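re: ur question from earlier - yeah i can do the single chain one, its not a big deal. heres the input i used so u can compare w yours
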Amino acid sequence: MILIGQYDSPFVRRVAIAMRLYGIAFEHRPWSTFGDAEKIAPYNPLRRVPTLVLDSGEALIESTAILDYLDDLVGPEKAMIAASGPARYRALKICALSTGLADKGVSLLYERVLRKEPSKMWVERCQAQIRDVLEVLEKERAAVGSPYCFGERIGHADIAAACALRFTSEAHPQLFTEVRYPMLALHAARCEALPEFQEIAQPLAPPSGD
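and the output i got, formated as tokens:
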């Protein structure tokens, strides 16, 4: 398999970390959606990452769809999310909030670096969305006493949250602080200490507006 995308993307990173935890081998092509868009296009016309090219040549797109495929590949006993029922829905909610947080963080970053005059309305909207999601995730994490969101074992919800938090802390450090969100900071630190997280990492390199 070939995983396309750079590890400073929280979406690419969550897929790569899951693949490492699952023990699934892959070739990594760290192509940028800006500098390498035309390389990505034959596999994904949206020119977005992550894109996972299967051994058959078929390409899967979007992190949630890719992880669904990987979960099916490893089977329900090993999958890092419940197969059905309330536990699955709760995990999917945390994943959705976390990927939404990352998406708003990316949007806010692009607004800042790609526009000469950022829209005040858009910046304020994104910042409000980021703050509100962080508040919800902080409360969710504070309500759980286990090492991870749903017990002793790491899951997709944990990975999605940690990847989104790292991106937010690098792209918008004023919005995510340990003082304001201590439980999320603790969660992120626990995940980032794992060898898979340390291996699958890249400093944020935002695109240039030039």
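The first helix runs from residue 10 to 22. not sure if urs matches, ping me
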